[in-house]
Amino acid sequence: MSDNETTVAVELSTPRGKYLAATCSAIELRTVEGTVDINPRSGNVLSLMKATEITLRRGEEFLSFRLENATANLKDGRLIVLAENIRCCNRPSLLPAAT
Fold first, then answer.
1. What is the pLDDT of residues 6-17, one digit of tens each?
2. Pairing mode, if any, of strands 8-14 and 78-82?
3. Would you call 59 exposed, middle or buried from its count of C-beta atoms within 10 A (0-12, 13-18, 19+)?
């Protein structure tokens, strides 16, 4: 199985620039309407408005981020999240808050 079939490329960005780029094996994206699990075999195209939180799985590590005024788009194994502001929830020392 190729790496493209077992991972999703994730990019978290704000108007100030790229906040995080990572390759993840699983993603949970919360919106005001519910939760969407994204894995490498998820649908080819997905667009969500009002995303509020994202949890990324990298190996055995889970990283959670709060999203303000965010949209998310999944296409061809790549998830792009654009948010007004992003804050790391569980590992504040790992990444500084984008302001």
1. 889 999 999 999
2. parallel
3. exposed
Q: What is the DSSP letter of 3?
A: H
d(CA 82, CA 75): 14
Structure tokens at 99: 């302001």
Per residue in 62-74, pLDDT tens? 999 999 989 888 8
Better pLDDT: 77 or 13: 13
Backbone angles phi, psi at 17, to 5 degrees: 130, -175
CA distance 69 to 81: 10
Beta bridge mates, 81? 12, 72
